[in-house]
Amino acid sequence: MGRLAFLVRTEDGDPPHRDPHRPGKPWRVRVGTFAATAAMVSASLVLGAGPASAAPAPIKLTSASCPQEIVQGQTSGCVTELQNLLNAHGAGLAVDGQFGSATLYAVREYQAATAIAVDGRVGPATKSKLYATGGSAPAPVNLNSSSCPANIVQGAKGGCVTELQRLLVHHGYGVDVDGDFGAGTASAVRSFQSAHGLTADGQVGTNTKRALYDTDESPATGLDLRSASCPANIVEGQSGGCVATLQSLLNGKGQSLGVDGSFGPQTLAAVKAFQSASGLTADGQVGPNTKAALYSNIGGGGGNGAPAPINLTSASCPNEIVQGQRSGCVTELQSLLNHHGADLAVDGDFGPLTGSAVRDFQSEKGLSVDGQVGPNTKAALYGAVTPPSSPPPGGGYAKILDVAAAEVGTVEGSARANSYGSSVGLSLSTGNYAWCATFVSWVAQQTGASSYRNSYVSGWVKQARAGNYHLSVTTSPQPGDIVAFDWDGGSDFTGGNEHIGIVRTVSGGSSFTTVEGNTSNPDGGSDGVYVKSRATNSSYDVVFIRVR
User: Fold this and answer.
1) Lowest mean pLDDT: which of 114-128, 138-152, 272-286?
2) Is 171 strand, coil or helix?
3) CA-to-CA distance for 30 and 525, rounded, in angstroms?
4) Are the C-beta atoms of 481 and 428 separated by less than 8 Å?
5) Is the pTM value of this prediction over 0.85?
6) Lowest mean pLDDT, pick from 70-79, 469-478, 514-523
7) CA distances from 73 to 43, 61, 97, 104, 108 (A)
8) Helix ranges (DSSP H) in 425-520
9) 437 three-state secondary structure
């Protein structure tokens, strides 16, 4: 199954109970990323064969009876369980308990779709993900779709409940993802509602759905590092889907990193260790040679990975890219579609799901919906980001406020606002994700005040508290400082309801004004970069960050 993709918008710059959100467009959930291909591979193995012997009884992958890593060539009940789980995610395998080439392909495709190191080995991370993403639960359905009832209540079953349970797990609640709205799920819903200032009635209506999708995260995409969607050199301080993929690939080479999408000291050490072991210059920068080494001996089917990406507008790509093609042009196409929320496995193979994603994209952009990637579709795919028109001013921390204030009035979804994502390796429209911390990262990049970049508010607070990257916590705010808000209180910045901006003025000790991205327009128009009045004695918690 393709990974579950949420619309990842934070609050619009004000506490939820004070300024209602403007609902964004949910990302699609794509199920069965590899179903057709794996089914064909599986069918080719069994077609014309004699009666198959019964598969060994399934054994839970996380039990002591299964090896730590399940690999090709094994035959056991563990493999039976693995095949059942893969089929529940759309693989279409013959369940025979034998880990053959079809199962290997399905494992690799599942790993690619869920941003796990694509090594074809079913270790702890893959086992955990297979169970966490629902196993045999009904395929998830977006709660805001017409397929889900206005109020989801205890006793309900189906894909809407699967989605609800996954969202609850995402927010830290330990519920089983089984598509069955039982007492445990109801208890978690009430707890979630209480924590977010909602009526704790256990019914998942409009307000609860909105709060469940309201999370301060950048999109966790399984991006191909070699595509044009990722920086040529990925370095310490960057964050986002490219870094998450890097961490997953490093784990597939023997490292043990948390896949959080943040390129910090541990990731740097892991990169250098990998480079040394691979005979590369251990400079900690993930350039073309390091990327090539990371992708060696992994990927779909033959172990060579997806074809290297090729710019769609180059002479190497056909005028129209269509279903049935396999090439680096398709690799590039899939990476670009993922930046627009498509959630595809990046395998360079233009299959039915890629075709569907193309048509969805064309529909969203007002293009002719024919599933063919011609000049207009190519232009729209590359049109999400326009580089800033002015050169970086530099000037360090002294220029932070000047640079931030110059952006006031920039409207969410505009080319200028979308360009902020370049600071964290994103080319996604700001209308589709929480970009307040991305804006702060862009300001830091423009001024050179700090090398830290992160699209998560929690990352900025964590590094400031640790005194890293010339960041520190201060209780005497000044113009040009960074300010982080925890709308839920507690100052832990882990509840998915946070915000961040730049201090503009300070008066009276507790009152201050800010320049914030991803915040509501005081005049009632579209969200964007605006000046807001804040206070330290309100219901939310505040942390001031000094950049020196």
Assistant:
1) 114-128
2) coil
3) 33
4) no
5) no
6) 514-523
7) 19, 16, 10, 10, 15
8) 436-447, 457-466
9) helix
